[in-house]
Amino acid sequence: MKWLIPVDGSEHSLHAVQQAVSLATTMKQSPRLLLLNVQWSVATLNVKLLFDQQVVDDYQLEQGMQALQSARAVLDSAQLSYQYHISIGRPAEAILQYAAAQEASLIIMGAQGKEGLTQWLLGSVAERVLRLSAVPVMVVR
């Protein structure tokens, strides 16, 4: 059993991680927990003119690790094993692709993402994943 938990560093995604911990600790056999952070691609023509690809890659890795930090701390504190991955692209599509590639049996995600415009964009991610997923999706508020 594998549970995919997409995280963006928001309070809502942290609630999803905490819900996964609560559920996992009640089970006889703990599921494999998969944390996923999706970074929007910033490799536009203008960015490529100013920065080389390694700088862009390093930036996106740094942002992804920062977004995963709180979720990893919660799982470490709960002594649950997990793996994490950072993808680049459109969040809903990347979540669905990763879920399929990892053969996830459940996706647990926050209802909304970060504040402002990002919150609106990522809020729509939960709706899109819920609508298009081949596996059950738990949306946590």
Features of this protein?
141 residues; alpha/beta; Rossmann fold
Distance between the termini: 23 Å
- The averaged pLDDT comes out at 90
In CATH, what is the homologous superfamily?
Answer: HUPs
Largest sheet: 5 strands, parallel
What is the N-to-C order of secondary-structure elements (H for helix, E for strand)? Answer: EHEHHEHEHE
Specify the CATH class.
Answer: Alpha Beta
Please give the radius of gyration in angstroms.
Answer: 15 Å
The CATH architecture name reads 3-Layer(aba) Sandwich
Which stretches of 5+ consecutive residues score pLDDT under 50?
none
Query: How many domain modules?
Result: 1
Strand content bin = 15-25%
Strand order of the largest sheet: 3-2-1-4-5
Task: Give the helix proportion (percent range).
Answer: 40-55%
The count of helical stretches stands at 5
The count of strands amounts to 5
